[in-house]
Amino acid sequence: PNPPLSLPKGQDGLKLVNDPAHPFIAADPNDIRGPCPALNTLASHGYLPRNGVARPDQIITAVMEGLNLGNDFAKFLCYQAFLMNGNPLTNLMSIGMKTPLTGQDPPKPALVGGLSQHGTFEGDTSMTRVDAFFGDQAVFNETLFQGFIDTATKFGFNDTYDVNAAAELRNQRLQNSIQTNPQLVFTSPRILSAYSEAVFPTIFFVDGRLNNRQLTIDAARHFFDFQMMPTGFFRQPAPVNFTIVDPLVSFLFNKHPFSPGVNQGRNNFVLQPQTPPLSDFCGIYEDIVLRVIPGQYPNPTGVLRNAINKNLGFFFGAVSAEHNCTQVFPFGRD
Ligand code: HEM
Ligand code: MG
């Protein structure tokens, strides 16, 4: 199906989303969960299929309905992920590990690895998940969450996770991986997701009635650890697009600027000046489309090429809604 439209006017505002129609039910052993606390939570409340395997349109609808992501922003995140981690032939993606539930794979080197696939959307220096070098990169880690609480306590207003706490935690996680992870990769596209995801909790996990960009530890515990919305939780009061997220990402960056790079052994961060920096949004778009996707689909033909080109078109549609980028075509135009 085509990507969903925006929520209709009058139905895109403040709303109780932990409601009787969307009860929390803990994932059962066969349900798939992964590295994204928001998608895990939406699956556990039935905004997404509870088994953790979904189509792009279901994911877009879920993040719009459940958390009030703006339509463009929802499509940007969803198609970026889907192009790297989904199955273009069956239109299904796992929000966690690879699974046969996404159907027959396209030919290798396509991965169809689900959101947990390391080195695609998932990457190093996550806030509550360890780097893949150290263990399971998808599962919540209590020790790291204690570090999250520490930064909220030290740097956030009233012990909350706010943008000041986010700026410190983002930098701490990068410095820690530089010191300890010999295989650290911190280049496009991971740099963009890392900074965006540090900001997201200050927006989407805060009750929309308060909407003060200050996340309490209790609410953070619910989303990150329990994969559960707090009791009586209301979503954001209006759809949230790049115009809200971008300045907050810049705020974090300006507090602790960095350049993209990779470790060649512990504490040996080698800059990668030929790759796009965080400030070059269109450069990151082009890097995804011209390098990352063809890495898995070097020469797609027939129905596979058609499906990928469609998704590339949806992805660019979201990119161009708020950024002035030029579309690029790795597999030719239709
Ligand atoms: C992390 C996908 C929407 C919050 C991630 C990761 C993926 C992902 C693959 C793992 C990256 C990593 O840390 O290595 C997606 C997709 C989305 C989406 C495909 C929508 C289509 C959201 C939304 C929120 C959110 C709406 C709102 C709060 C987060 C946070 C993390 C994260 C906070 C970082 C977890 C950590 O660092 O410990 N997401 N996400 N995501 N996501 Fe999402
Ligand atoms: Mg990660």
Spatial separation of the terminal alpha carbons: 18 Å
Let me know the CATH homologous superfamily: Chloroperoxidase-like
* CATH architecture grouping: Orthogonal Bundle
Task: Briefly note the CATH topology name.
Answer: Chloroperoxidase
Unreliable stretches (pLDDT < 50, length at least 5) are none
Sheet/helix structural class: mainly alpha
Counting structural domains, the number is 1
Distinct small molecules: protoporphyrin IX containing FE, magnesium ion
Mean of pLDDT: 98
**Fraction in beta strands:** under 5%
- The coarse silhouette is globular
Any overview of this molecule?
- It is a single chain.
- The protein is mostly helical and 334 residues long.
- The chain has one domain: Chloroperoxidase, CATH 1.10.489.
- Helix content is 43%, strand content 4%.
- It has helices at residues 37-44, 56-67, 71-85, 142-155, 163-180, 190-204, 217-226, 242-255, 281-296, 302-322; strands spanning 53-54, 93-94, 185-186, 261-263, 269-271.
- The strands form two sheets. It has a three-stranded antiparallel β-sheet, with no helix packed on it. It has a two-stranded antiparallel ribbon with strand order 1-2.
- Helix 3 runs antiparallel to helix 10 (302-322) and helix 5 (163-180) packs antiparallel against helix 6 (190-204).
- The longest helix is centred in the last third of the chain and has 21 residues, at 302-322.
- It is globular and about 55 Å long.
- The two termini are 18 Å apart.
- The mean pLDDT is 98.
- It binds protoporphyrin IX containing FE and magnesium ion.
- Protoporphyrin IX containing FE binds next to helix 1, helix 2, helix 3 and helix 6.
